[in-house]
Amino acid sequence: MTAPRIDTDLGKIEQNTRTLADRLGVRGIRVTGITKAVMGSPGVGAAMLRGGAHGLGDSRVPNLVRLSGLDRAVSRTLIRSPMLSQAARVVDVADVSLNTEAAVLVALDRAASRAGRTHGVVLMVELGDLREGIAVDDVPEAVLAVLRHPGLRLLGLGANLACQNGVVPDDRNMGVLTALVEDVESLRGITLGTVSGGNSANLGWAMGTDDVGRIDELRLGEAILLGVDPLHRTPIPGLHTDAFTLTAEVIEVAVKPAQPWGDRAQAAFGEAPVRTGSGRVHQAILALGRQDVDPEGLHPPAGIAILGMSSDHLVVDIGDHGVAVGDEIDFGVAYGALVRAMTSPFVTRTEHPGDPVPERPGPRVRIPSSAGW
């Protein structure tokens, strides 16, 4: 098979979704599966829906287009504030969008009216992470503005934490959102059917609090895809953490000095990596680079250490592993590595249905394909 490639086990995605949907469901919270890290993969989206996701969301319009072949009864949400220039396209491909800007709401209203449809709106509230969000005091007026647009339907309020500045969802900030929803409903004489509390970073709060208030939706991507809590990147009990495997081919194997020699300046991507140790290193180079993946998010097999990465070369210490040119090595991936690998035109994306199975210990070294595992 072509390398580098990233393989997705759809069965594990489905099982992770089901586990989280079941755990949150008993607390009255539904799951919207987020596909932005996988380029709006229809296979991943379908696996999330099979696992109990209530709807799907993505941050990019082209990704929502890729999801358009799935069940149209399932809501598709644009989870990044729409670009003004894309208002008509957003109305065409998304049932719902998350919004903060009055000018964008006007454009969405006009586009929806021209298309003869109604577009769902969730207004995002700023709760401290300083990314998107309307100031709490300004929300009642923003609600009124949406209600005045005939082409728009106000679904509810939402928030996003932890993405920009790492602000942790807790009883205080989620309580602010609940109180705001109730104030708006009382003031405007309406009922809001969606209170979107946040993303995968909200899971610890949602599963640990005594009262989730009015929060009835979470937008989950990383937790479903990688089985980890984004706040600390720790595994979530009961979830698969190895639904994705990044495979690269070895193009050189040699024993080289542990330390470089000669006068040194910056390397291709800034400061040169610090190499430790002395003597000689059993070193391999793989056809994988920073154009393909974030090296900080690669998890090599046991006994293999990453020494450095340039645009097109990944250099590793293979230790005692018997690796030859043409062999392949499998890596686990963290979120940043997953996103970059999925968006690289040089990485082949593959998916297989694979029934959910117990997790294997970790990535493995692939010896020549004729030898098997």
TrEMBL record:
Domain Alanine racemase N-terminal: 9-224
Record region (Disordered): 347-373
Pfam families assigned: Ala_racemase_N
InterPro entries: Ala_racemase, Ala_racemase_N
Taxonomy, superkingdom: Bacteria
Biased amino acid composition, Basic and acidic residues: 349-362
Entry protein name: Alanine/ornithine racemase family PLP-dependent enzyme
Organism: Pseudonocardia oceani
Lineage per the UniProt record: Bacteria, Bacillati, Actinomycetota, Actinomycetes, Pseudonocardiales
